[in-house]
Predict the 3D structure of the following.
Amino acid sequence: MNLIFSLELSKLQDLSQVVNLMKPFLKPRTLILLDGELGAGKTTLTRELLKSCGYDHATSPTYALHHHYDLTLDSENLNVEHLDLYRLENEDQIESSGFWDLFQSRPQSLILVEWADRVSIDQWPLDWKRYRIKITKNEIDRTYQFYNF
Ligand SMILES: Nc1ncnc2c1ncn2[C@@H]1O[C@H](COP(=O)(O)OP(=O)(O)OP(=O)(O)O)[C@@H](O)[C@H]1O
Ligand SMILES: [Mg+2]
């Protein structure tokens, strides 16, 4: 795992800095795992990323499991899949949910996955660009660490 950037933020308004650093990586056939404890800010970051692609109404997929968006970034079409594995307890449940089919059915999407640590790291497809953002929260601020793997 290689660290691409690490940023510490104390204000929600500064989240655009993280988005700007991530923007060059928002491409087709790209997987971004969003890791962090309950309430760390995974959905909030996703919402900001989608906003930067012109979409202003993103909600958490905790219950729906999967939200799909057809967006445009820098005049290129970008399909985004936003998933939340929180309600799936183990790899068997993830398997039977049809989650893995997504990589075949949406081979050109940007896939963003909350609670990605439900899946062990060696399970993720190797023929995608693969990144992980780890959000760590304390009383004062949040740290965003972005890796490729
Ligand atoms: N960088 C930030 N600075 C301040 N507050 C933030 C920041 N990011 C998120 N929050 C706040 O933290 C709360 C939880 O955020 P969010 O729902 O995005 O977390 P989550 O990681 O998706 O949670 P869950 O584990 O339930 O999916 C929200 O009230 C949000 O406004
Ligand atoms: Mg969430």
The chain has one domain: 28-137.
